């Protein structure tokens, strides 16, 4: 495996770690959300965790196409995550603020990985990441509208 692929695979594995944290948060907040916007946020978080699961799969498959190994254990997630874990918030506003912060961090991480992908002219990986970021930007925007 060449250095280009090693760098790409390492960054994509790191992104998968934080996608898992996003998945867990969306799924957890889907279960515990309360308040005036329950229906819309309950559905939004369900859509988001399903979309995030697809993102994880697409990035993992791309790593495999690049002849890389996918590093995905609970220990990997716990030790390598950049995004804080879900909290047991009781207040609707705390959940919204946490998810705004989380999506902002995910989008920044995706942007960082895309810069590396562009450097190596990997159009397939770039296409996957652009689509992921498009979805995440939209979810970020919708959640921010609940503030």
From TrEMBL:
InterPro entries linked to this entry: DPS_DNA-bd, DPS_DNA-bd_CS, Ferritin-like, Ferritin-like_SF, Ferritin_DPS_dom
Gene3D superfamilies in the cross-refs: 1.20.1260.10
Molecular function as annotated in GO: ferric iron binding; oxidoreductase activity, acting on metal ions
Domain Ferritin/DPS: 9-146
Pfam families to which the protein is assigned, alphabetical: Ferritin (PF00210)
Family: Belongs to the Dps family.
Record protein name field: Ferritin-like domain protein
Source organism: Candidatus Xenolissoclinum pacificiensis L6
Lineage, highest ranks first: Bacteria, Pseudomonadati, Pseudomonadota, Alphaproteobacteria, Rickettsiales
